Every structure is written in structure tokens, then in C-alpha cells.
């Protein structure tokens, strides 16, 4: 094999190719970007290092960048999410330097990140800062001189938590190159949090419990993007939805959207299904569990497993806890059985398939265009954390509409002039 | 073991008991009926023979009847749906004479039905007429004399097709005892077709394809109970829904409910997901496949696998067909890939878990009360097919509301009198 | 003027013609029936006597029948609903014998009904039985001989109450000719009760009070056709909807549709807007008023003004009642102001414009086709009350779809055969 | 009468008091602010000059400020919207210096603004900048010295257009004191644009035409706050909704919300009802009118009457235009009748009652708290245009929830700390 690599079994490539083809067929936005990249070659001579979940959708992103002329190297951002067949196909069919084995230990994981870092990428792609941190740990001075020489253009970071970390680095003056934070892109927040998560959270709950949502009381904690997605879909499935919120503005919006709003304590006694989506901790606590009816289902849709106070639940139950179905554990509290899904971890990833490929299509389209933007602005950017430029959001939305065959109006010169004068 | 039986492995009883307990916890209506039966013993001295899918929910029904004093014997109505652990628990924990082994051959299957028939049940419970037919095939004369002696009270039949068959038998004068046809019960049509199927069909589609419903064009063929359930839920998930119908009354209702209505030919070119729910054959045919966009998903929600013309699809594709995911086969037609789910069979059973236990709770509550009704009307009923008495529907609805903790208004004497005079 | 008549002022004809033209433009189904009638002349030689509200929509119906060759005479079914300009145009422009003056007294009203009766119609059209009763009161013997001679074909009756009265007459053996009861037609119940009333009831409430429905708690009493229309629209406007019902089947359906269901007593304390749609009396009573919050709005959507116990409300308030806006009276109960709309009469008629012309189009299309059906079955029908034949419902639905430019599928011979064998 | 004033007829005060009481009863947020103001007297010694529509809701605002100790003078911001009875009651019952006569001419209008300006207010309240401009026109130097002496604290402006004008003044260095722009407040945008307008636009269309929305195709141009309100409510009334947009991000959001999205040209041929809500001009133009079906309804929900190209419509129709109902003019284009509502002006104001009092309650609560904020920040603010401080939005939302009896969760110290570390 022509490229450097470390994957479980190159013979799995055929299986991986099939899964990548399935994903590619569902990612028309990225495909259309890839087509343009293939002609314009914006990444000619550019080395990209990526540290991402090694999945079929990621493979489509990597292939898109490679089509644009990039020389890409990939390692896993999480040892458990690697699909070995996809890794194999990347090596065999796409000749991408790939370093990822499902279930790899800490040392191997670190060596894989190092393998990518040592290729001295012009652009880094991260999902949790591991690659950026590795580069910085090996000496900021060298990085600064590479940046000065326009040999290191910048990076992208996928997670909110990672972006917060990078901002702290920037504030402390130790960030050496510009990074685009992707998680705040409008298209992405929309597709991912509101529509993707709204569907997949309910999907996870139904798969785990096969409960009927019609006529159920579903309590949604938090009315941010994710919570309102879950609330809208639960109502759409025939549930009667209660929203809890600490932010009065969001609470009022939920009221005006026709939901019942109350405290979690009050909702606890009335709900059949509870979904937390606040981004905060201790949203459902001991005093709430004590109120819940027999058979209540507890699911978390927030990033971290801190929203449902599982420790308090376990203490209330004492020894009276037992697994009852895959992903479902019953805790007996005051004679009533409460069903905790997936130990309080993200229910849409743990009990369902995570985001549909159509959603990843939008996220990764933002990713691809952000890389192109870094190339275009080579040498112009300070070492800081940048939001996604509005033009990229608009471009992704336009491409998505085009791939759906949807045409929208164009503003006439007269309308543009009018907006300039009177526009909101 | 005290009872006659033929099950795969009695040692599986513990596992089965767990699953039965899970189901029982989700079937409060049947539980409350069981409680009353346990006190009133309406089936004291009554032998019941049942031929049903051997599932946890069925076990709860059987236990409910047994609690009422019945001596129940059970065989499988389908060799493939038997859960061996449930069968084991029925024998070991409930001492129910059970004859069912998953995957049993035709001869064993027949011997199991015979085993139940030979116990000379006072009441038969059927899901496809197998037990009724077996009894009739062994000599109607004996049956008639048992009926005359009030030793054979009647039966129930679960399927629409079975009821049609029994009506033909009644018309031909060969039906020897009264049978209650359960499938037309209002509560059941409501819970099962509209709400249960609406949810589980979408669940099946999402599990098989992980497609995003928000923004998709979903075409629902048929606007009966099942179709309107699917349409409502698809809209609730953010899809833009098109309905096709041959019946102008239903088509108009769909229009007034805010759906787009058009012919399947017109819809074919616009849909991303197609769901058939008409109860008819050839609903999507060759000329329609030819119009569909790349990636279109084809799913059937009707009882039989005749709604999507799979043969025509295969012919159009020639050899260009291949499995792409579990339960998903891609047919290439005119360069576009069409995705057929589960070979055109019922997608909610084939790709998801079928109806939630809460739905089975209502179906089996009707079942239990119909058996009680047969006992109450011992000796009064002609050998004919009866609909479910309205009082049973009302009783099931009341119990369901009560188990949800919902109180409804009661009519005062003045209101009852008013309705008698002016009422609709 | 060529025809016999008694109207307020023939000079109003021009204004009336304008309003009739507006209505006709919104009644395409009736227009298409009129076109066919104009060619086929099904009423050639037929005299039709009609006793209906004299409105623009009625004029379109009358013109449709006249186009079919009928000689029509019209009187008012209610002295208060007569539009004098419409009556004038019917006389002047359509040469229809019209007897109606807005606000006419009892004696004039009776003489007008008599004027129509004395023309010995072949077919009677009623909205409350006045014309039928008048004919019967002048001697059933003559009617019977006219029926025997096929000189009197039958009648139609529009109201449910009228149909109940006629059924009592038939049971007592005094009904002399066949009457079609229109109110149960499926198309009509759908368009009128569910969709028409759903919209117009909310319209009436908003016009009377200009209250914001988004975020309001709307309590809907009754989940029949009308109640579920109101509930669906209230939810559609952003309200959080509570349903009260005495019928457990309907209550359960409301639950499964995602509404909260409880007793009126429980709902009273929580609602901001109350709408009664039960067809029963005393739905909201003294004990309920005592629970209601300040500013609660009370509206009735049922046919009679008996659903809200206005007398009890007045007693609770003592003298503390006063009009606060047109159609709104405030009753102070326990220091809280309750707002009764339109004295508890039908709020969509009293505070809004009643049903849209598109809804009347469907109702009157059924009316016109029922008259044609009476002609076709001349001499074949017993003196009894008939429901609307299913073929008429289907025909109206088909015409409505056609006028909307909507095409639906047609069943192939193979599909028809399949349905005959397996069909539900 | 104790105060200086110029109103039409003080004898109308009783009627005005009744209307003010009705409004006050529907404005609980403002009432609760008034209660606090009554105790804390934040405006003791403060003169407030207001130039607003003289309506019952405005009177409640004025009374609220007066309760806080302010000495308020009021003139009309539009001669046509003045309610003379309300003006009378303000003078007689509230002793507010009021200068407003319905239909007053330009000179009187100007003298009224001058009357308020000459009282040298500490705070100005504007709805279109008239008062601010008057003050500035009489010499910025004096204003600057008053500001320097903390004798002139600042102002508020209600309209978007006004705020744009003030920003231009600030940029040109001629704005002499700080002004809070109210129109961007989140609570207000929510209550007013999305929920208030959503309801009142449909209300206006139904009042003007009595058309049935169920089953209609409603085309909504623009998917901003206002457009999405209209779209959601139209769908809620059973319409099939098409959205047109020029902004791809918003277009994509509409798609993901389940609406059909297309160009206006494509939508023109399919719609029954058209609503413009873009804030731009020429949204529906000649080429679109040419496509529309007979009976199409054209309504504008945008602030200015430029969205529907009425001139082009008139030219297409030539002389073939005529009023057909109050507020409805029919233009005949190519043999088809198009119905323009209210000459293309804001349909919810022109054909309905504008925003519900509950919506004005929120807008004016922001107004009252912004005045208090100016007092609190006396001497601290630059002469610039300020957005509404987030704390005011939160406070209004909290008060609104409290007046609805809704409690929300409070964050614990642990949760606040968590958010500080990880929070979005």
C-alpha cells in the first residue's frame, strides 16, 4: 500500500467502501462541493491533518478535501467510534494516511495523533482539540515560525467545549494560529441541534423502550435549540408536552408556542417521559425522583451525563436497581419503578444511530468550506478563535436547497437598494 | 412440571418471567381487569383454548384469564413469532398448558393446535382461525351438541381476514358457534391503527435508513385509519406530506387537514419517502418507479406485501439490485437508486418492534372482556360473527383513562334526559 | 314584475346582485352542478318550494335549481336572517317568486310560508320543517293523493332537530311523503362542523375580545366533530388546549391526540377561554364559574344557548354585570370578572360571519343533488326519513376536488377485484 | 380642569374610562409594574413627554408612569389613531396634560407636539421621532446644556425606522441625548411580530373575506419573525403553506420546518391566499399576478404598502377593478378576479383590531422599564442609540410568567458555577 497507515485490517476495505458509498449518496452538499474542489483544486500543495471520528461520513469529508488537492492524514478522535472497515477503505481505496484502530489503547491513540502531527499539516481539523494540543505541546516557537512563513494556515474545531478551551488559550496568549469554531454555524445549529437531535432523541427513547408517545406526558427540560427540537417532535408524535426552563425569556417563548411550562418539581409528578436538554447539571434531582409515577422514563439529550442526578437516583433506590432491557435500568424508588436510559448518557447516540447523514452533510460542508476559507485568508488572520463566516453559512444553505431542487427568489437591484435604506 | 406442555426449554423460564413482568408493567388496563377477575372469578370452571403469537403481551393476557379462574391452554398462531423463554415461563411459573416452539415445522405446529383442540375448550381464542378450523374439521355435529349443551360457548377472532372467512362460513351455514370479531373494536382501531401504527411505521423507516424526516417529502398512499396516523406523525416530524387516495371523501378530508393531495403518478416525481397504507394491491407500480428521484425510500404499512409492485421494480432494475443495509435493498432504475424496505412487507413489524405494549394492552383488554361477555351470554347467542359490543369499547376506554389518572365528566340525570330529547 | 312576490324593496336588487355574484364566485361546486343542470334540465316541469335563510348563498342554490328547469318559490325560514337586497335580486334578476322581508312579524311570516305552500310544490326544501308542517296541517289526505299521483315527490330537511321531529312523525304514521335529512351527510359534517365551525368559532371569539390565543389555556367541552375542530384550530393558534368529555371513547381519543383531558370542574380553575360544543345542557355550571380566573372568556359553539348556565352565572353575579364591548358582558363573581360572549348563543354566528361560502357550497351541493335524487326516484320511495345516499356524498367530494384542480387516483379493475375479496 | 390640555370633548371621559379599564384588565404586566412604581416612585420629580398613538393601551402606560411619580404630557403620534374618549379620560380622570384631537390638521398636530416639547421633559417617549426632532430643531445647544445638567436624561423610540433615523443622527454627531430603541427587544419581537401578528394577520384576512383557510394554499412571502408567525398560524388553521424567501438560511429553515419553499413566480400559480411579510418592496409583481388563479386573495403584513406592486396590478387590470366588500377590491386580470385587501396596507391593522392588549402589555412594559433605566443611569450615558438592556427583557418575561401564574426553575449556586465553566 502506497501510504503510511495503521489500521486493523486492510482486507475490510470492500465492506467499508460500501458504507462510504451509502453515506456519500446521502451527502449531496458535500458531493457538490467536492465536484467544485475537483475542478478548482483549492488545496493543491496543502497538507491537512484531521483528528475526527472515523465513520463513513468522515470518509466522505476526507475524500472531498482530497479531491480538492489536499494531502490528508487522519487519526481517530475517539478510539471507540472508529469503524475499522471505513479506515481500511480510506487507506486502500483513497490512499489517505489513516491511523485508527477500534478500541485502541491510550498509548496507541497518542501515537496515532502524533503520526498525524508529525506530517506538519498546513491545516488542522479537530473534534476535541487533541491534534491542536499535540502540536502546541511540541513547542509553540516552531509553530509560530511556521505561521509566520505561511506554512501553517490555521485549524478548525468541532465542539463547543473545545472552542471554550481554545478561547482560554487565546486569552492566555498561548494559541499560536487561527482556529475556526464550527459549532456555532447557523446552518449547523439548525440542522444538528434542532432537527437532527429532535428526531434522534425520540428515536433513541422509542428503540430502548418501545413506548407509545401518543397520549404520553413528555417533560422537556430546557428550551434551547435542542430542547425545542425535542419538544416539537414529541408534540408531533401526539404527546402532551411540558417544558421546564430557568431562563424566563425561553420559558415565555415555550408558553407562547403552546406548551405547558412549570418547575421540574411540579412536572415530576405528571410526566411519563423526561428528557433533559439544558447543558447544565442536576436538572432532575432526588426531590424530583420522589414525585415521579411508576414507569417514568428518564433520558438525557445533553452533551454530558450530568443532567440527571444518577448518583442520587441510585442512593434513593438502594440496591433495588436492575437492567430490564438493553440500555434500560430500572430503579425502584418508593415502590415505583423509574427507567433510566443509557446511564444518563446522550440517548440519541447511545440508543439510536446519532445524526442522520443529511445532518452530517451540512456539518461537514461547513467544515470543508472553513478549510477553504483558511486557505483564501492565508497570512491574514490573527491567532484567535473565529466564528464561521456568514458567507459560508449562506453558501451551505444555498447548496442544500439546490440539492433538494428548491429554487428561491433573488433580490432585484431595486430591492437591494430598498433594503439598504429601510432594511431591518 | 404439573401441566401438559411442549416447549423448547423450561430452563428459559426466568428470562421469560422478566420479559412478561416488563410487559405487565406496561399493560395497566389488563392488570386492572385481572384484579377484578381475580375477585369475581368469571371463568370458574371454564376451559379456554388460545392460538396466539406467544409473546410477553400474550402471556399477560393468558395470566389475566387464568386469574379469572379459567383453565387455559395455548398454542402458537405463527411458528416464527414464538418467544421460547415466554413459553417456558408460562409452563413453569403460570402452569399454563403451552405448546409452542420457535421455528417448529408444519407437523409439529398442527399437533400443537390439535393438543389445544383436544382439551375441548368452552371458549376459543384465535388469531387467524386455525383453532376454530381444527375444531370444525373434526366434525361439526359434536360441536353442535356441545353448543346445545352449553359446553361450548363461543370464540374470538383477532384478524380482519379471519373474520371475513368466518362470515363466509356463517353464510354457508357451517359455522357452529358464535364468534366475536375483535378487529373492528373502536378502541382497538384507534390505538392500533391510528396511533400505534403511525408511530411504529416511522420508527421502522428511521431505524432502517436513519433518514432525516424534517424537510423530507413523505408520500402517504391511503387516508384510512392507518394512513392518517402515518401522515400526522410524518408532519409532526417536520416532513412535508403528500397524500394519495382513490376515495374522494377521504381525499377531501386530507385536503381539509392541510395535506397536498394528488395522484401517485404526480407524487412519484416529488417524494423522498413513500409509505403505502391502502389495503389494496399495486399502489405503486412500474410507471411510478420510473418517476422517482434518486434515493427514494419505499415502505409498506399495509397488512400484505402487495401494495408496492416489487416484481415490477425488480424487472425495471434487471440485475441492478443489491442489499445496502439490513432491511434495505437498492434497485437501480434509470440510473437512480430506489431503496425498498423489508421486501415490501409491513415495515413496522419487519424493521421495528411492532406495536408498543400500551397498544397491545388495549387490544387484549378487548379480548379479555369479549371472553367474559361470551360467558355472560352463555346459551343466548346464535352461531354467527358478532362485532365487539359498544359497552366493551366504552369499558376499555374508561379503564385506560383511569389507569392514566384521568377523570372525565359524568352526565347528570338532567343531561341524560336532555340528550334523549334533542340528542345527536 | 313578472312573478308573484313580497319583498321589502325591489330597488335593492342591484346591491343584492353584487352580493350574490360574490357568493357564486366562492361556490364552484354548486356552479358546476348548475352547469350540468342547465344542460340536462332534471327539474323540467318541477315546482320546488323552499323555506330557507334568504342569504346570498341561498340565492345561488335557488339559481342552480332554476337553471335545472325548476320553478322555485322561496320564503324565509327565519325573519331575522333575511337580506332584503338578496330577496329583491331574486325577484328582479332571477324571476323567483320570493316572499321575505327582514324583521317581518309572525303573521306575515306565516302568510309567506302559506304563499309557498299554496303553489303545490313537487319538492319541499326546509330548514326547520315549517313548510312541511304547513303542508301537513292543511290535510294529509290531499298530500297522500298527490304522492300517489307522483305529483308530490318528497322533501329535504336541513337541521338535526327537524330530522328528529320528522322521524317522530314517521313513527306516528303521519308523515305523508319521503324526506331526505341532510345534516348527516359526511361531506357536510366534515366541511361544516369540523372545518367551518373550527375556524369561525375562534374568529368570533377573537373579534369579540381581541384576545391573544397563543399561550392561552383554551378549554373545549365536547370532542365531537365540532369540538375537535375547535380544539385543532385553537392548538394551531398556539393555545394549550384542555378537552372535557363525558364519553370515555372520545375522551381517550382526545388524550391520544395529545390534549389534556379532565373534568370541567378541574379545567375551570385553569382555563382562560372556555368553548362549549357538546350538544348538551348545563355543561358549565355555578360550581365551575366559582373556580374561574379573572378575565375568563365564556363562549358557546353548540346549536342551542343551553350549554353555559347563564341563569346561574347571573345569580352568582347578582347585579354585578355590565356590557363591556359589543357582544361581551362581564359578570363579577367573587371579585373576578367573567366575560360571557353573545349571551351564550352560537358565537360563530353571533360574533362572526358564520360559515364561509366554501362551506355553504358543499352543504348546498348536497341539497341540490338530493333534490335531483328525489326526482330520479319518483314514485319509488316510502314516506320516511332518508339519510343522504353515499353516492351524493362521493359526488360532492369529487366535484369539490375537481374545482380545486386536484386529481386523485382511480382504481384499476385488478384493484377493484382485490378489494372485493380482501377489502375492509 | 386642573391640567393644561387640548382634547375634543372632556365629556367623553366616562366612555374613555371604560375602555381604559378594559385594556388595563388585559395588561397585568404593566399593572404589576405600576404597583411597584406606586411604592418606589422612581419618577418622583421627573417630567415625561410622550408622543404616542392615543389609545386605551397607551393610557394604561401613561397611568403607570404617573403612578411612579412622573408628571406626564402626551400628544398624538398620528392624528388618525386618536381615540377622543381616551384623551378626555386622561385629562379628566388622570389629570394628564393631553393634546390630541382625532383628525386634527397638520398645524394643530405640530402645535400639540410643541405643547409637549415646551414642558421641557426629562424623558421623551416617541413613536416616529416627532418629539425628539422638535426638541432638536429648537436648538441642540440648549439640549446639550440640559443633558450636561442632568436635566434631560434621555428618550425612547418605538419604531425600527425611527431608530435608523436616530442612528444616522448619532453618526452625524447631531444627536444630543441617549435614546433607547425599543423595537429590537426580544420579548417584544416575540410577542409582537411572531405571535401577535401571526394571529391578527389571519384575523384580518378572514374578517375581510370570510374565506375558509382549511384546505387553502397560503403563500407566505418572507420567513422572518412575522412571516414565520403567519406561516405557523396558517398551518394551524388547516392551510397548506408555501414559503418564499430570498435568504437561503431562512429558506432552509422553512424547508426543515416542513413547508414547501419555491420562488414567488412558481407559487403564484398555486396559491389561494398570498401574504407578504418581507420588509422589502415589489415582492409580488406583474409577472406573478399573471399566474394567479381566479379568486386569489392578496394581503400585506409588512409595515409599508410597497410589498404588493399595486400599481402594476392596476395597470394589468386597466379599468376592470371594483370594490366588492369592505376592504376588498377586485382586479380582473386575464379574466381572473384577484382580490386586493386594504389597498395593500397592513392587513391586521386595516381589517382587524391590530395587536391584542396582551401584546401591547409586553411592548409597553418594555417602554416603562426603559424609562426607569434612563433614570437609574442618569448622567452615565453617551448621546447614542441603545438597544434594550437584556435585564429588561428578562424582567418583562418574568413578570409576564408571574401574571400567568407560571413558576419556572431557579438555578442553584452549583448550576450557576457549572454554567460559568462549561456553559454555552
Describe the structure.
Four copies of one chain form a homotetramer. The first copy, chain A, has 424 residues and is of the alpha/beta class. Chain A is 47% helix and 16% strand. The first copy, chain A, has 18 helices and 16 strands. In chain A, strands 1-4-3-2-5-6-7-16 form an eight-stranded parallel sheet, sandwiched between helices. In chain A, helix 10 links the parallel strand 8 and strand 9. In chain A, 61% of the residues are buried. The model of chain A has no long low-confidence stretch (mean pLDDT 94).
SSE diagram, text form:
The structure is a homotetramer of 424-residue chains.
Chain A: E1 6-7, H1 13-25, H2 28-40, E2 47-52, H3 56-67, E3 71-76, H4 84-92, E4 97-100, H5 106-117, E5 123-126, H6 130-137, H7 140-148, E6 154-157, H8 160-171, E7 179-181, H9 186-209, E8 217-221, H10 225-236, E9 240-244, H11 248-256, E10 260-261, H12 264-268, E11 273-276, H13 286-289, E12 297-300, H14 310-317, E13 321-325, E14 328-333, E15 336-341, H15 347-350, H16 357-376, E16 385-386, H17 390-403, H18 413-422
Parallel strand pairs in A: 1-4, 2-3, 2-5, 3-4, 5-6, 6-7, 7-16, 8-9, 8-11, 9-10, 11-12, 12-15
Antiparallel strand pairs in A: 13-14, 14-15
Amino acid at each position: 500500500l502506497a501510504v503510511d497507515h495503521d489500521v486493523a485490517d486492510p482486507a475490510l476495505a470492500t465492506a467499508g467502501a460500501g458504507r462510504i458509498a451509502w453515506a456519500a449518496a446521502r451527502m449531496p452538499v458535500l458531493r457538490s462541493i467536492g465536484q467544485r474542489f475537483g475542478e478548482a483544486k483549492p488545496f493543491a500543495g496543502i497538507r491537512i491533518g484531521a483528528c475526527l471520528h472515523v465513520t463513513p461520513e468522515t470518509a466522505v469529508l476526507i475524500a472531498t478535501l482530497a479531491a480538492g488537492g489536499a494531502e490528508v492524514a487522519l487519526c481517530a478522535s475517539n478510539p471507540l467510534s472508529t469503524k475499522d472497515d471505513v479506515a481500511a477503505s480510506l487507506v486502500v481505496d483513497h490512499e489517505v494516511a489513516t491511523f485508527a484502530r477500534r478500541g485502541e489503547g491510550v498509548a496507541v491513540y497518542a501515537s496515532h495523533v502524533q503520526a498525524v502531527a508529525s506530517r506538519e499539516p498546513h491545516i488542522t481539523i479537530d473534534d476535541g482539540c487533541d491534534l491542536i494540543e499535540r502540536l502546541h505541546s511540541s513547542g509553540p516557537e516552531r509553530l509560530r515560525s511556521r505561521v509566520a512563513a505561511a506554512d501553517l494556515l490555521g485549524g478548525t474545531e468541532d465542539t463547543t467545549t473545545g472552542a471554550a478551551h481554545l478561547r482560554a488559550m487565546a486569552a492566555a496568549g498561548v494559541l499560536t494560529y487561527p482556529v475556526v469554531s464550527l459549532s456555532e454555524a447557523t446552518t449547523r445549529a439548525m440542522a444538528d441541534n434542532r432537527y437532527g437531535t429532535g428526531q434522534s432523541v425520540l428515536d433513541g427513547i422509542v428503540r430502548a423502550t418501545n413506548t407509545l408517545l401518543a397520549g404520553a406526558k413528555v417533560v422537556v427540560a430546557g428550551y434551547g435549540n435542542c430542547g425545542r427540537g425535542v419538544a416539537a417532535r414529541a408534540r408531533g408524535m401526539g404527546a402532551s408536552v411540558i417544558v421546564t426552563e430557568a431562563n424566563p425569556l425561553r420559558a415565555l417563548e415555550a408558553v407562547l408556542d403552546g406548551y405547558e411550562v412549570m418547575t421540574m418539581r411540579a412536572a415530576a409528578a405528571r410526566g411519563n417521559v423526561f428528557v433533559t436538554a439544558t447543558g447544565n447539571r442536576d436538572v432532575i434531582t432526588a426531590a424530583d425522583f420522589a414525585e415521579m409515577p411508576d414507569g417514568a422514563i428518564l433520558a438525557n439529550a445533553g452533551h454530558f451525563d450530568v443532567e440527571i442526578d444518577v448518583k442520587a437516583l441510585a442512593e434513593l433506590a438502594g440496591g433495588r436497581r436492575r437492567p430490564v432491557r438493553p440500555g434500560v435500568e430500572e430503579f425502584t424508588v418508593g415502590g415505583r419503578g423509574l427507567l433510566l436510559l443509557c446511564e444518563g448518557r446522550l440517548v440519541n447516540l447511545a440508543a439510536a444511530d446519532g445524526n442522520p447523514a443529511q445532518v452530517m452533510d451540512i456539518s461537514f460542508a461547513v467544515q470543508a468550506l472553513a478549510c477553504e476559507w483558511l486557505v483564501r485568508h492565508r497570512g491574514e488572520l490573527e491567532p484567535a478563535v473565529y466564528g464561521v463566516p456568514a458567507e459560508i453559512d449562506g453558501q451551505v444553505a444555498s447548496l442544500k436547497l439546490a440539492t433538494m431542487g428548491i429554487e428561491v427568489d433573488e433580490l432585484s437591484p431595486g430591492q437591494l437598494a430598498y433594503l439598504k435604506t429601510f432594511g431591518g
